[in-house]
């Protein structure tokens, strides 16, 4: 089974467990790219997105998309490959103005969609094979569009990022539940920059976010990039 296929099953199981528990996160007051409220920058990394078509990569239960529509006037399309995550989003936010949700493979969606003017992924980017995702984003964004995403940098076992473009086993932990096995692309920031440059994106900033509690090894990275002019 490919890492991509396993991750589809992983997030379908994750979404079903959240449905079983009736858990739906509230619409946040700000975008937190890491796991810790108030740590690091917020949606300002995307710039002015009022009235712009924005792609939410791996939108999950939809709360980030709704925040950007309500608080920043964006027109957000949230795309998630997991049917259970999609169900969570549509149950809670089906009638939300400025937001729509699709259950689809992100690359397949981008091949047939109108061009987007911004894209972001909150802790989802590293769950998708970059060789699958980045060519689609290259062709699916207008020139000059911002791309902002967060991805794991160092995991809870203290394992830091990789210098090669390969996925590795990780786990998703839910309180009082068995961990769910998955694969993630936990890449060095310099490697992300090389990959993005190869697909016509220029990295403008990288932020490393650390857990506020002492002793936690977890570090998230947030990468700001911009689609270069032209279609490549």
UniProtKB/TrEMBL annotation:
- The superkingdom listed in its UniProt entry is Bacteria
GO BP: methylation
Domain named Methyltransferase is located at: 54-133
Recorded GO molecular functions are: methyltransferase activity
Keyword Acetylation applies: no
Q: One Pfam family for this entry, by name?
A: Methyltransf_25
What InterPro entries would the database entry show? Answer: Methyltransf_25 (IPR041698), SAM-dependent_MTases_sf (IPR029063)
What UniProt keywords apply to this chain's record, in alphabetical order?
Methyltransferase, Transferase
What is this protein identified as? Methyltransferase type 11
